[in-house]
Write a structure and sequence with these properties.
2 helices, five-stranded mixed β-sheet, globular, Alpha-Beta Plaits, alpha+beta, about 40% helix, about 110 residues
Length: about 110
């Protein structure tokens, strides 16, 4: 199962996310849940760093990705992170056995 944790500051703004695990919905290369999450996650991370030029700590490895936006750039990334969250919530609704979304206060 993919665990998607969204980081939320005391003001209620999303400040980033962490993805761990594998969806397990199909074999590697045929897993549509994994493909949907991975593609959207990389698009989000690349937009944060290369389009919005926000200061962020981004880490990616097999079965893991973390994006943490610096507090000064949270506002600039707000809509992007909200859109990514909505995408994952939609996947969670369709594939509850393969992805779980939660929130962590930071």
């Amino acid at each position: 199962m993919i665990q998607a944790d969204f980081f939320v500051n005391v003001s209620g703004d999303l400040t980033g996310f962490r993805l761990t695990g594998h969806s397990g919905s199909a074999e590697q290369g045929s897993d549509i849940v994994c493909a949907a999450v991975s593609s959207a996650a990389y698009m989000t991370a690349n937009t944060v760093s290369d389009v919005l030029r926000a200061q962020a700590h981004i880490t990616a490895d097999e079965g893991y990705m973390s994006v943490r936006v610096a507090e000064r750039d949270v506002r600039a990334c707000r809509d992007l992170l909200e859109g990514f969250k909505l995408h994952l919530l939609g996947l969670e609704e369709q594939y509850p056995q393969n992805i779980q979304v939660s929130y962590l206060e930071v």
